[in-house]
Specification:
Layout: E1 2-7, H1 22-34, E2 39-43, H2 56-73, E3 78-81, H3 85-93, E4 98-101, H4 111-118, E5 122-125, H5 143-161, E6 168-171, H6 180-188, H7 190-194, E7 201-202, H8 208-213, H9 223-235, E8 240-243, H10 246-265
Parallel strand pairs: 1-2, 1-8, 2-3, 3-4, 4-5, 5-6, 7-8
The protein binds 6-hydroxymethylpterin-diphosphate (HH2).
Amino acid sequence: MVVGILNATPDSFSDGGRHLDPARAAAAAAAMVAAGAGMLDVGAESTRPGATPVGAAEERRRLLPVLRAVRRAVAVPLSVDTMKASVAEAALDAGADVINDVTAGRFDRRMLPLCAQAAVPVVLMHMRGTPAGMQRAPRYRDVVEEVAGFLGRRAAAARTAGIAPDAIVLDPGIGFGKTLAHNLALLAGLPRLAALGHPVLVGVSRKGFVGQLLGGVPPEARVYGTAAAVALAVAGGARLLRVHDVAEMRQVVAVADAIARAGASA
Ligand code: HH2
């Protein structure tokens, strides 16, 4: 499934400032669904490296008008990218269907119980540190094993909180406290994460590691590089691909998935 990214933020690294206005966000959402997005991920706090955290009141003020307008505009499931249970609760009241927590329920202890009580799926992502400082010399002994261990523990915590196993989605957190080498190792090691038994979501879209591999091109010029990473993520077992360029990545996913399935049944 292709998950379209819609950031109701002034400062996101790629689409910052473009979808703060509810009417514009709704139009962008409808266009992404028409282009083949099976879900949309709406966020109101940037988590790019060095981003300034926002308070819950400000996050709700940005998010809710956009979320309500998007909810009226499209019928696909909507996930909300937040680490705060109070924001998640308001978002679920406004029609969200899934919670995407880049801290995997560690920032706010009320997050996993809330998802259990509301019976909604949750995305649990790996991040080393916090967005403010996470790119300062991150180190791992074995990044794939450490991320797999972390995600396994967080999935267990989610099950203990009462979330159904098939409602738990795991995400290696590409770019969150990782060097280029760590990101590449994780993408190459996706089968190890898929073997944890939960659907895997991967977010590589226009990210810094793609720019690094392409000599520093800006986010808008990283579409083909993103396509390569998306194709190999599908081959590695990713089931959900979080992307900005929905029409393009829909093609990439359709072809990569067909080849991966042919290989699996051969
Ligand atoms: N990446 C970003 C934000 N949220 N959530 C999940 N589950 N996985 C990711 O890889 C992920 C995420 C960062 O990308 P973006 O939303 O485009 O930028 P920003 O954080 O600047 O808003």
